[in-house]
From TrEMBL:
Keywords: Amino-acid biosynthesis, Branched-chain amino acid biosynthesis, Cytoplasm, Leucine biosynthesis, Magnesium, Manganese, Metal-binding, NAD, Oxidoreductase
Organism: Deinococcus indicus
Site (Important for catalysis): Y139, K185
Name of the protein in its database record: 3-isopropylmalate dehydrogenase
PROSITE patterns recorded: IDH_IMDH
Record NCBIfam families: leuB
């Protein structure tokens, strides 16, 4: 029996994770689900945002479903030494799982163009996969410091780090439309020069069938919202991917529609890309679609159950039509939306 560890975390994390768990239990009743602490709530309980009981639970997990971590701008957690802050717990979790490739799909399902603030003709048919490098760059480099009036971080990549994430992007493109756009800042940064060189060499060596092009991150920030259909797979380094994926959330219409899968050495980590939304936490109005779709990605990539994953995607699309949440201009709260997903699942039972 597969074991899934859930880490609801802070803010709206527990609200959206509870919704995703309800859906998981419906489509995969045989899986064992075990809940543990991460983030600020873990710090408050254990003095550590990624405490030992959580680390231990991951040892025999087949996949991990995360909610969100972190507090509001004025939260006391933000005054802790950096390694004790909620976000450091999440980064340590990603590292512990060896999840170096973060897949962030940006899709506008047919009939849901009206949820996008973009003109319907721009939003229609958009299907982008952002592959964000997740264990390198400024996020993890030890060469960092704040000291008086000076501070620095270091964006460093090595060829093996670039190649392993680029392979995931090329592999994904092979199952899709065969196009990869590598995003960098090679007109200014040496680290991007290496990134571009290594991605190109890998394509020339092992992925000749893939169409590869390179674009600068500033220009992509404009094009991804003004002409999103130009992209199939985007591969980029950690910080650029973080920023571009929140921007890309504008296309489907909300951060609440952006799931993700982080893959690498061992068990995968599945999480919505949005944060803990302190402004709406505890009100029961968060959009759980990203968390529910992340559970779908868990079934697809973590447990290799594409049929169950497809059922979830279809049910979420139906629920978004029937019961759009407030972030999408609708009136449904978290529970109402989740019930709509569950009833859509009931009306499309599993095959066999
Ligand atoms: P955020 O993503 O939490 O919120 C940005 C805006 O989007 C807010 O107005 C929020 O209400 C809205 N929003 C986000 N998710 C939503 C949802 N599911 N339904 C409806 N509305 C939604 O970003 P922020 O405010 O910059 O960050 C808040 C905290 O979350 C910070 O502590 C940050 O570090 C943390 N954070 C955590 C993660 C994570 O756990 N993966 C990701 C991003 C930010
Ligand atoms: C995300 C978040 C995290 C990141 C933070 C909370 C550490 O913004 O998952 O996109 O920057 O990776
Ligand atoms: Mn982010």
């Amino acid at each position: 029996m597969p074991k899934i560890v859930t880490l609801p975390g802070d803010g709206i994390g527990p609200e959206v994770t509870a919704a995703a768990v309800q859906v998981l239990r419906e489509v995969a009743p045989d899986v064992t689900i075990e809940e543990h602490l991460i983030g600020g709530v873990a710090y408050d309980t254990h003095g550590d945002p990624f405490p030992q009981p959580t680390r231990d639970a991951l040892a025999n997990a087949d996949a991990v479903l995360l909610g969100t971590v972190g507090g509001a701008q004025d939260s006391a957690w933000n005054l802790l030494p950096r390694h004790l802050r909620p976000e450091s717990g999440l980064l340590a979790l990603r590292k512990a799982l060896g999840c170096y490739a973060n897949l962030r799909p940006v899709r506008v399902q047919p009939g849901l163009e009206h949820l996008s603030p973009l003109k319907a003709e721009l939003a229609r048919g958009v299907d982008i996969l952002i592959v964000r490098e997740l264990l390198g760059g400024v996020y993890f480099d030890g060469d960092r410091k704040i000291d008086g009036d000076t501070a620095y971080n270091t964006m460093r990549y090595t060829t093996p780090e670039v190649e392993r994430v680029a392979k995931v992007a090329f592999w994904a493109a092979e199952q899709r439309r065969g196009r990869v756009t590598s995003v960098d800042k090679a007109n200014v940064l040496e680290v991007s020069e290496l990134w571009r060189r290594d991605v190109t060499a890998l394509r020339d060596r092992d992925y000749r069938g893939i169409h590869l092009n390179h674009e600068y991150v500033d220009s992509v920030a404009m094009l991804i919202v003004s002409d999103p259909s130009r992209y199939d797979v985007i591969v980029t380094e950690n910080l650029f991917g973080d920023i571009l994926s929140d921007l890309a959330a504008v296309i489907p219409g909300s951060l609440g529609l952006m799931p993700s899968a982080s893959l690498g050495d061992g068990a995968g980590l599945f999480e919505p890309i949005h944060g803990s939304a302190p402004d709406i936490a505890g009100k029961g109005i968060a959009n759980p679609a990203a968390a529910i779709m992340s559970a779908g990605m868990l079934l697809r990539h973590g447990l290799k159950r594409p049929d169950a994953a497809n059922r979830i995607d279809r049910a979420v699309a139906l629920a978004l039509r029937a019961q759009p949440t407030r972030d999408l201009g609708g009136a449904a709260d978290t529970q109402t939306f989740t019930r709509a997903v569950l009833s859509a699942l009931e009306s499309s039972p599993a095959v066999g």
